[in-house]
Design a protein that fits this description.
Layout lengths: L2 E5 L2 E4 L4 E8 L7 E7 L6 E6 L6 E3 L7 E6 L4 E6 L8 E8 L16 E2 L3 E6 L1
Parallel strand pairs: 2-11
Antiparallel strand pairs: 1-3, 3-8, 4-5, 4-9, 5-6, 7-8, 9-10, 9-11
Length: about 130
């Protein structure tokens, strides 16, 4: 059984930074492409960033390019999302997700392809 546990969320001021972590247990992290999604109140879940199994490929939604960075440490079975220059519109619950089917250099933005999800961590950016 694969479990994903997010941490690192919180309240931060406009322009601040946070680093989210996603700890994966139950299977070897290197078998999974990973991604972060977010969902704001009253809005649909949105793709944020993805990273391939070997970390060689990344993908970001346009609204976070240049501000967010996704990375992974397969030895620690952990995926990170470094968020800088945060804006109030980044306020949401952030979820990490794991996809077992991706080729080693591949990423995807489609939520339905991810088999495992964490419980989410709240990020609130105050203006």
């Amino acid at each position: 059984q694969v479990q994903l546990v997010e941490s690192g969320g919180g309240l931060v001021q406009d322009g601040g930074s946070l680093r989210l972590s996603c700890a994966v247990s139950g299977r070897t992290l290197s078998n999974y492409a990973m991604a972060w999604f977010r969902q704001a109140p009253g809005k649909e879940r949105e793709f944020v960033a993805a990273i391939s199994r070997n970390g060689g490929s990344t993908d970001y939604v346009d609204s976070v390019k240049g501000r967010f960075s996704i990375s992974r440490d397969n030895a620690k079975n952990t995926v990170y999302l470094q968020m800088n220059s945060l804006k109030p519109e980044d306020t949401a619950v952030y979820y990490c997700a794991a996809d077992l089917k991706r080729l080693i250099y591949s990423t995807t933005r489609f939520a339905r392809t991810y088999e495992y999800w964490g419980q989410g961590t709240q990020v609130t950016v105050s203006s």
